[in-house]
Every structure is written in C-alpha cells, then in structure tokens.
Structure prediction request, 226 residues.
Amino acid sequence: MTFLELLFNDVKTEVSILMVYASGSFSEMTEIFGYTTALRQLSQMFLAIFFFHSSEYILAVGIHGKSNVTLKSLLVSKNYLLAMIFSLVEYIVEFYLFPGLKEYWWISNLGIAMVVFGELIRKMAIITAGRSFTHLIKIYHEEHHKLITHGIYRFVRHPGYCGFFIWSVGTQIMLCNPISTIAFTGVVWRFFADRIPYEEYLLRQFFGSQYVEYAQQIPSGVPFVK
Prediction:
C-alpha cells in the first residue's frame, strides 16, 4: 500500500470518527450554544442596568454634591424592581420552553443599539442641563433652575425622559422578551404621559410665555405626548 493510500485511509477514518462524534453529541452542542446565548444576553442586561444606575448616581453627585443626593438618584423604586424581576422570570421561562426565541440576533442587537442610544440621550440631557436637571419634580422655583433650550434640548424638550423610555424598552428587546417589551412600553409611556403635563404646568408657572413658546416649537421626545 502506497503512502498516499495510507494517508487517504487515515483521513477517511478521522472524518468518520468526527461524524459519529458530532451526531452523538449534537444535543450537547446545542445545549452548550443555548447556554452561551443566555450568558451573553443576561450579561448584557446586568451590565446595562449597572452602568445606567451607577453613572446616574455619579453624575448626580458631581452636579449637585453628595449631600444633596439620595438613593432616589439611582432611579430605583419598588415598581421598577418588580418590573425587572418579571422580565428576568420571563426570560428564564422562555429560554427553557422556547430557546429558539432567544436566538434572533438581529432583534437582540437592535435592543443593544437602543440601550446605547437611550443612554447617550439621557446622559447628554443631564450634562447639558447641569444643576437644572433633577430626578424629582421641583414644585418651587429655585435660583439655579434655568430654562435650558440649547444642546440636546434644541431637538427634544424632555431628553431625559426620552432617553429612559428608549433605554428601558431596549433592555427587553435585547433579551428578546416579547411580553416585557409590550409591558415596559405601555407602563413607561403611561408614567411619562402623566408626569410630563404636571411638570410642564409647573414650568409654565416658573418661566411663563418663554416656556410656552419653547414647548410649541420642540417635541416632548415621548411618542404621542405633546
């Protein structure tokens, strides 16, 4: 038997072994791939949450001073925690029952883009407004509270809300969570649809016709909220 024949037989043997191994461990390979998907998506989720809230707190301390910042500056509430827990429960249930649902990477990547875009809009709003940006609605006009109409505020009059809306919905699209995507969209929109008119009522009291004219020209940044 020539050298080439020996080599050819060896190659055929190795290919046969690989085919047997692959066919026998296909389910294991699929399982490993599934857990890799979950690891990636959940890691992205926790990283997005950590960065959003830690940067929110750091900026608040830098602008207003540590003595004027509370845990509310992290924007963490009971309802918020319940919503996030619900989204994680949905992810885990769907991952085990419908694993293929989590493998639409173009959807997941769209969610990542929304998370980053929402972060940029909100952080630009905080930095641009400076001391005029507060996490709680001010019911009394303070001296340092100015009407901000430059920067990102030239295009959106509530960029902080706009950014959070995009970010929150994006986290659920990133996880390929259909139920939580719809729920987050509805709940967050409802919250801002109630909050914005109340806040703008106070802003009209603070800045008068100047704010009325500004609001007529610039959209709120939250869909279907004038």
Remarks:
- The longest helix spans residues 26-64.
- The CA atoms of residues 4 and 10 lie 10 Å apart.
- DSSP finds seven helices and no strands in the chain.
- Helices lie at 3-24, 26-64, 78-97, 105-129, 159-174, 178-207, 209-217.
